[in-house]
């Protein structure tokens, strides 16, 4: 009987040991599964965090670029306004000087000289245009031109000077202060160094 008890005790011990090994194996599997799940969750969390960080950085870059663009646009607008203000001040002063010149005795001499130069174009059937206020100088201008020419008023001339047009060829000699000022304005814009970049 003792043998049976011993056999039962051995069997019980063996079953307990096998059960313990099985339990340990199952616990080890559970622990490994938990560790794997934790690693996967950590990787997923890092991936999500990296993605969110990337999105936020892209949004910040986009907002910064928009802000910089707006600041540059405002800066450019202010610089252009300031440049235009300087240019207008300069050319307003020039126009005032031209108006003063047109009221002086030198202007009549200037017109006569321009009429004489215009006659060098050898137009066959010419008409001379002046501003309305200069029509009183028609006889002097015809004399300076050196041959018969019709003198008419033109609203194309605001500041002063004259235009001689050939009716036959449609060629034009423009000796107006308006055209000279326009040419100076273009020259100034190209050469003044007030280019905004």
Structure description:
The protein is α+β, with helices and mostly antiparallel strands. 70% of the residues lie in helices and 10% in strands. It has a four-stranded mixed β-sheet with strand order 2-1-3-4. The longest helix has 101 residues. The radius of gyration is 49 Å and the shape is rod-shaped. The model has no long low-confidence stretch (mean pLDDT 83).
Secondary structure layout plus pairing:
Elements: H1 2-102, H2 105-118, E1 126-130, H3 138-145, E2 150-153, E3 161-166, E4 172-176, H4 177-191
Helix pairs in contact: 2-3
Features:
10% strand, 197 residues, alpha+beta, 70% helix, four-stranded mixed sheet
The biggest sheet amounts to: 4 strands, mixed
How many helical elements? 4
Strand order of the largest sheet: 2-1-3-4
Which stretches are low in confidence, meaning pLDDT under 50 for 5 or more residues running? none
Shape: rod-shaped
The amount of beta strand, in percent, is 5-15%
User: How many strands appear in the DSSP assignment?
Assistant: 4
Structural class: alpha+beta
Mean pLDDT: 83
State the order of secondary-structure elements, H for helix, E for strand: HHEHEEEH
CA radius of gyration? 49 Å
